[in-house]
# Entry
Amino acid sequence: MTALKDSYPLYLANEARTPNLDLEVTDKYTGKVATRVALADAKTIDAGIAATVEAAEPMARMPAYARQEVLAHCVKRFQERFDELANALCVEAGKPIRDARGEVTRLIDTFRIAAEESVRMTGEVQPLDISPRAKGYQGMWKRVPIGPCSFVSPFNFPLNLAAHKIAPALAVGCPFVMKPASRTPLGAIIIGEVLAETDLPKGAFSILPAHRDGADLFTTDERLKLLSFTGSPGVGWDLKAKAGKKKVVLELGGNAAVVVDADTDLDDAVERIIFGAFYQSGQSCIGVQRIIIHADIYDELKDRLVAKTRTLIAGDPHEESTFVGPMIDEKEARRLDSWIQQAVEGGATLLCGGKREGAMLEATLLEGVDRKAALYAEEAFGPVAILSKFTDFNAALDEVNDSKFGLQTGVFTRDLYRMLEAWDRLDVGGVVIGDVPSYRVDNMPYGGVKDSGLGREGVRFAMEDMTEIRNLVIRRR
# Structure
């Protein structure tokens, strides 16, 4: 497996710079410093933004085939550096190696989709003669790049969630500055290494690790035309309030539910729910947190879920057999551990798991959790899920909607009418039938409602956010 380098630069206006090595990146399993990364200060961030302004016109004038060639180069290089990228994820995010390989595959998919979409950005001819006063007028419109963009990416998918911002920007011709999460900057920096191999206009990209308290310019600078943030709701909505006139896209959190109807194949449901609840240690905004089960199958499915959960191997994420690795740090593990204890003190029953050692928290299931408890109402973002039962399908949908979040919901049912009812009634960004809410394909529209965010990712949909419609009206005498 490819080892990490001793140090990594930041990227300012397409160029590697190492003004310092002030950011320590730890191995999330051992807690030891794995490498060091250059850290951007306010002056460097300002310079990166200025460079995007200078690059805006040459980026907008890049022909579609040239943008596609850049993206295709990235696909090729990510394939060649597959093992290196997976190992970086395993170290900096504590992601089990099988999950890490899956994310690298998704990174490649996302850039490949963007390469395909970069030559499909079309407009429309529009008749304007809707009344006598418009006789002789004809219209048409096209999409043009919105201009310099600001991207802030999270720790849980350091590669693919960076890709969901970078790849669409390149596809439409937007220069950008990116702030990767301080705890997991390596994925974005390696993307920067690959982009630096291309002939993008100078200033097309800057990847600038920075501490949150010194990174206000990513949000407030008026030269930036769009802010795309993925992370916690508390931070995201605060950034939106500070963003000024720029467009804002927020992909935030959730406490995703899965509804399991009485006609469900239980063997299949167990496999998918266990995956959805505990893959990459539950640190996914669409990880299964609430499992809502029909009363007729509740006891049997509960027993199967508990038995399967107890078989999951936890430990070193580099081991092929590991399913549950560490949480991002001990502080987060302590937080979630306290929520579990509070739920039990409030009357919940601990079915399995619940033990913590450092950043390692056992895969945990509970039932009877009070809806006012943090473990129900907030985003757990760890290897914990809670069970409840229903007898009326519409009541189960109401229970899903009993949340300030609305990202995705999974529904196991074979009833066509219940599927359509779920699609109509669930107040979420996406409904997944026959699977868990944790399922995502990188070309689909992805995002939430309520506290879960604004706008949609998924390459083509992100490209729409990163462009503006420019109209043309032609008068013929």
In short: The two ends are 70 Å apart (CA to CA).
